Every structure is written in C-alpha cells, then in structure tokens.
C-alpha cells in the first residue's frame, strides 16, 4: 500500500485533484467528511465542543451549528486551537482505521488522504508522498467569494487562519499549480496518477457514511 497526503489551502483545488485520482483508481479518504462524522450527535467530540463553546453552537436538532461555531473560531486563534484540539485527534483515529481497512482489502492500494490541515494538525500518518495544491492567496479569496458565497472579510479570515503557503510548500514532494483552469489542474493530476502507477479504472471511495 502507498499512502499519499494531499493538502493545500482552502479553495486551492484539492477536491478537483482528489476526484481525478479517485477516477484513476485511488482509494480516497476525505478528512473534511471525517471531521463531520466525528461530531455527529452523540459523539464524544460534540460533547466536548458543547462544553468548551457553549449551547449556542448546538442547533435545535442537536447537531453542530457550524456557522455559529465558525463565527467564533475564525475570529479567535485561541478558540480555533481549542477546537482543533478536540476534532483532530478524533479524525486521526478514524483515518487510521480507514487506512488499515484499505490495506487489508488490497495490499497494493494507492490511498489518497485529502487533508486540508496536514501542516496545522501535524498529521502523523506515514505518508509515502505529500502533494500540495497551490494557488495564490488572492485567487483563493476570490473563489470563496465568487463560488462559495463568502463575504470578502470572512474569506480572508478563513484563508489567513490556515498555515502559510511557505509552510505548506516546505512539506511538498509534489506541487500542483491550481491557479489556472480546471483542465490544467486535471492534467497535472493525471501526470501524478501516472507516476503512482494508477490504472484507468475506478476503485471507489472510502469516506464517512
């Protein structure tokens, strides 16, 4: 089994690259989906979040109110650090389980772990290769505003709350330039797939249910 860590700043094209690698036959594990799974109602992580941030971050149906929590943590580095200290360990544990399952099913599997906060969370998994999707800060802010409906102020906060480009690039074995068209990004993903020896077939996705 080969484990590939895929990371990059918010709105830097990670999903485009991971989808292409999955189409080429990689097993895809999505940290964002797992981060949602580990804070579902009844989970220990959600109980910890409620204790730390109060009942205001819990919606009437008992689920996490992400907007309310986001308004707190993206404006307060200490609060963001506290949240990460709750969620990251739970995600690491679940990820380890999924990686082990993928290896048991296919010892030759290429597993792509799409993890936006690989640098910030100091993800400990034994990666064989780290791939960074990279687009300039202003491009990512524009995408958040134009494509995801964020305010410019919120977009800047979200981008600046993450690791710097320099910190991410320092960890990269391969950099995929995502500042241009989607087609250009996909083309680079195909080059990576070829290097990994991925066939033209679909091996499916491993993610939170």
UniProtKB/TrEMBL annotation:
Domain of life: Bacteria
Biological or metabolic pathway of the protein: Cofactor biosynthesis; coenzyme A biosynthesis; CoA from (R)-pantothenate: step 5/5
Binding site for ATP: 11-16
Keywords: ATP-binding, Coenzyme A biosynthesis, Cytoplasm, Kinase, Nucleotide-binding, Transferase
Broad enzyme group: transferase
GO CC term (a single one): cytoplasm
Primary location class: cytoplasm
Enzyme Commission number(s) from the entry: 2.7.1.24
Keyword check for Ribonucleoprotein: no
CDD domains: DPCK (cd02022)
Similarity comment: family membership: Belongs to the CoaE family.
Name the UniProt record assigns to this protein: Dephospho-CoA kinase
Organism: Okibacterium fritillariae
Gene label: coaE
